[in-house]
Design brief:
Distance between the termini: 32 Å
Number of domains: 1
InterPro entries: AAA+_ATPase, ABC_transporter-like_ATP-bd, ABC_transporter-like_CS, MacB-like_ATP-bd, P-loop_NTPase
Pfam family, one: ABC_tran
CATH architecture: 3-Layer(aba) Sandwich
Protein name: ABC transporter domain-containing protein
Bound molecules: adenosine-5'-triphosphate, magnesium ion
Keywords: ATP-binding, Nucleotide-binding, Transport
Number of strands: 10
Number of helices: 8
CATH superfamily: P-loop containing nucleotide triphosphate hydrolases
Helix content: 25-40%
Family: Belongs to the ABC transporter superfamily.
Oligomer: single chain
Strand content: 25-35%
């Protein structure tokens, strides 16, 4: 199966004097339908890796390919188009425009699309809001919903372009455990429907939803856990023992 994303010997450092290596020759492959979690101590380079793989930030050495197309060295304009078409992003807290309601915020990324797609976009946004359980909040101001509801809106927005891969940096980091569980159930469904998911988390229960867990340390991927149980409790147990073995 073709990789959606292939990172080869990715290197990144910050600063000149001294130069600090943040990503140290990282190799990573994400396949269609993959669900990958990245774990590791604070500062080990997880967010930097996500930014590098998604073309959000540049790298010093190595290459990144999306479905066989090389992102590294690509012209900015083309890279922006590719990111918009292929990638969806969710963060700890979605950034929403306060003067727009939830529905309009979800529609934002596709505003540039041609006029003839307007009706399709609107029905897609509404279908996503229905699916994520926030359709009643379509007209609501973004400051008047809960954190979990706002994150669901963030997920709807990320899915508007039908991305091949969803990047998520600690998507449950700002949520209570019930809302976190709901968001993870949603991400699992989205993954089962065909979108690859690459997420960063510190939470064993969150990582336990993934198929593979990569453990990072000092800018390197040290080990990979393939979760092989279908029982929730055993999955969490597997992640917890791998965390312990990797000093997370
Ligand atoms: N723009 C920058 N300039 C200089 N150093 C940076 C920059 N961005 C990140 N770093 C450093 O790179 C290292 C890795 O940061 P990164 O944000 O990738 O860590 P992380 O694994 O995501 O941590 P956390 O779990 O706390 O989010 C850190 O030491 C950080 O201070
Ligand atoms: Mg981070």
């Amino acid at each position: 199966m073709e990789n959606i994303l292939t990172g080869t010997k990715i290197e990144k450092s910050f600063g000149d004097d001294p130069k600090v290596t943040i990503l140290d020759k990282v190799d990573i492959e994400i396949k269609q339908g993959d669900f990958v979690a990245i774990m590791g101590p604070s500062g080990c380079g997880k967010t930097t890796l996500l930014f590098a793989l998604s073309g959000t930030d540049t790298i010093d050495q190595g290459s990144i390919e999306c479905e066989g197309i090389r992102l590294t060295g690509m012209k900015e304009r083309r890279l922006a188009d590719l990111r918009r078409e292929k990638f969806g992003f969710i963060f700890q807290q979605p950034t929403m425009l306060k003067n727009l309601n939830l529905l309009d915020n979800i529609l934002l990324p596709v505003l540039q699309n041609s006029q003839k797609n307007k009706a399709d976009n609107l029905s897609r946004a509404k279908a996503l809001m229905q699916k994520t359980g926030i359709i009643e909040l379509a007209e609501r101001e973004t400051t008047k919903v809960s954190g979990g509801q706002l994150q669901r809106a963030g997920i709807c927005r990320a899915l508007m372009s039908q991305p091949a891969i969803l990047f998520a940096d600690e998507p449950t980091g700002a949520l209570n455990s019930k809302a976190a569980e709901e968001i993870m159930t949603l991400l699992t469904t989205i993954n089962q429907e065909g979108t690859a998911v690459l997420l960063v988390t510190h939470d064993a229960k969150v990582a336990a939803k993934a198929k593979r867990v990569l453990f990072m340390k000092d800018g390197k991927i040290m080990t990979e856990l393939n979760i092989d149980s279908s029982l929730e409790e055993e999955r969490v147990e597997q992640v917890l023992s791998a965390m312990k073995a990797n000093g997370v």
